[in-house]
Structures are given as structure tokens and as C-alpha cells.
Specification:
Rossmann fold, 12 strands, 2 domains, alpha/beta, six-stranded parallel beta sheet, single chain
Length: 302
């Protein structure tokens, strides 16, 4: 029997506060583990529980109704539902509205409020893992998909001096750059323009799935797939990759060989979850305990 919101509520009764993650596939998500480690560190014990709820593509509206019906306090939203949920919640934050994506829902007396903590999680992980504050920095973001857009917006909101977008599709690059207005720019996809942007950057972020374990059946893609050659990065620069399986990616390995400080995507996963826990519990999240749990478990699904 699959785990559903209704079955969990029936089994646990009304006294237990329930949260979780919705997505497809979702069985191997790290989110319940991160939540459980936080609950334990906060002394919430069995009063709070977290579950992975398999919600098939196109079925997000039914999941939101189940949240209300079963009084689920909150859920993390992962693929493929982030865009669909925007129209299904009762209200959403300005960040979620601008991104067109929700990764966190809070149930407030059966009124559902959605937001997006991906960008916030990235900036927090950047500060913790690389010691870099984006304020006043020149940044390059490779990619223009959902994760890239969250990073672009968060860097601009954190005070970056420039957020330059490198992407194969110009239209999507300009859409992403608009999120960082007035500091967002698009880098022409020529070797010279890309090299100039990267050499002058404090931070370069790979926000594409290139290098992700299991992508198209390939563990890691090589230089032919990379829009930004990692050998352009040197000492004094930070190279970040939103991919966290494998750890590190080949792109990060090559950037590290040139002297760059490198940061993989596990920190973003931990910190975006921590930001969600604040919204659900009202408590300061035990980030270090969540980090230890994530490191011990090894990379899995988001």
C-alpha cells in the first residue's frame, strides 16, 4: 500500500504533526531524513513526523486537497510539481510568483500558502560552504531552467553587482536575466565572451543537469557538454554546481584542479529544507544536525 496523506493521518491520529515531500519519483528523497534529523535535534521527537508522498505527474491538485483534508502541516515540493502547485495554492509569496515555481507549502488552518526556498538555500550554502557573500560580487550562472532562475533571483536580491547568464537558448537567458534586473546580463555564446565573463567573475554556478548521476544513463558528461570550460577558473574564484550526485561532478573536479574553491549541491538541498522548517515549526533550524544526516546518508534524490 502506498503511503498517502489520508492513511498517515488515520494511522497517527490528530495529535501528531505531519509534514513531508511530494514528487514523482520520490521514494528515495532525502527530505524526510532531513526533517527527522531536525525534529530530533529540536526535541520534537514523535510529535512531528515526515513522509515521502508519491504524487504522479498531473495529480498535484488532488494532493493539495488531501493536505487540507488530512491536516498536513506542510510539504516540500519537488519535480514534476513545482510549476503546477503555483495555481493550486490559495496564496503564494512574491518569490514563488516571480519564479513561477513553488517548492514549499504551508498549511495555515487549511489555507495553503506557497513559497520557494531554493534560491535562499543556495545563498546560505554559499556563505557556509565557500565563505562567499554575493553582495558586490560578479556572478555567472550557467543555465536558465527552474533551478538557475532561483539562483539568479537570489543572487540579485543578495546584492550581487552583476549576474551574467550563459545559456544555449537566448530567449530563456534573457528571461532569467530579467529576474536580476538591473544587474542581470546575457553573455553571448561565443568562446571569447564566455571566457571574458568567467575570468572576471567571483562566482560561477553550474545550474544545468550536466554531470548528474543517472542522466541519460551516463554518470558524468565530459567537456563537450560544458558551456563553461572549468579550466577557465582559478584561485580566488568559487565554482558551484547544483548537482550533488555524484559528489563532486567532473566539472567541479576540473575547476578544483585549477585552484578554484568548489561547492556541490548538497548544501543547497540542506539549507532550502532548513528554510522550510522555519516556516513549519517557527523554530530555528538545527542546520548542522541536518548537514550531518545528509553527509551520512550520501547523495540521493532531492
Amino acid at each position: 500500500m502506498p503511503v498517502t496523506m489520508d492513511s498517515v493521518r488515520e494511522a497517527l491520529g490528530p495529535a501528531v504533526t505531519v509534514v513531508g515531500v511530494i514528487g514523482s519519483p520520490v521514494a528515495h528523497s532525502l527530505s524526510p531524513l532531513l526533517h527527522a534529523s531536525a525534529f530530533s535535534a529540536l526535541g520534537l521527537g514523535d510529535e512531528w513526523r515526515s513522509f515521502a508522498f508519491e504524487v504522479l505527474p498531473g495529480s498535484a491538485p488532488g494532493a493539495l486537497e488531501a493536505m487540507r483534508r488530512a491536516d498536513i502541516r506542510g510539504v516540500s515540493v519537488t519535480m514534476p510539481h513545482k510549476a503546477d502547485v503555483v495555481a493550486g495554492v490559495d496564496e503564494c509569496s512574491e518569490v514563488a510568483r516571480r519564479l513561477g515555481a513553488v517548492n514549499c507549502i504551508v498549511n495555515r488552518d487549511r489555507s495553503l500558502w506557497g513559497t520557494n526556498t531554493d534560491g535562499e538555500g543556495f545563498v546560505s550554502s554559499l556563505r557556509r560552504g565557500a565563505g562567499l557573500d554575493p553582495a558586490g560580487r560578479h556572478c555567472v550562472v550557467v543555465g536558465a531552467g527552474g533551478a538557475a532562475r532561483a539562483v539568479v533571483l537570489s543572487l540579485a536580491q543578495a546584492g550581487a553587482a552583476e549576474v551574467a547568464i550563459v545559456n544555449r537558448t537566448p530567449e530563456r537567458a534573457f528571461e532569467a536575466a530579467a529576474l536580476a534586473d538591473p544587474v542581470g546580463v546575457v553573455v553571448p555564446l561565443t568562446d571569447r565572451s564566455v571566457a571574458e565573463a568567467v575570468v572576471g567573475a567571483d562566482l560561477v554556478v553550474n545550474a544545468t543537469p550536466v554531470g548528474m548521476a543517472g542522466r541519460d544513463g551516463v554518470v558524468d558528461q565530459g567537456p563537450g557538454e560544458w558551456l563553461v570550460p572549468p579550466e577557465l577558473l582559478t584561485s580566488g574564484q568559487v565554482a558551484a554546481d547544483l548537482v550533488y550526485a555524484p559528489r563532486p561532478t567532473g566539472w567541479l573536479d576540473a575547476a578544483a584542479a585549477g585552484g578554484a574553491t568548489v561547492l556541490d549541491g548538497l548544501g543547497m538541498l540542506v539549507h532550502q529544507a532548513a528554510a522550510q522548517l522555519v516556516l513549519w515549526t517557527g523554530e530555528e533550524p538545527p542546520v548542522e544536525a541536518m548537514w550531518r544526516a545528509a553527509e551520512a546518508a550520501g547523495p540521493k534524490e532531492a
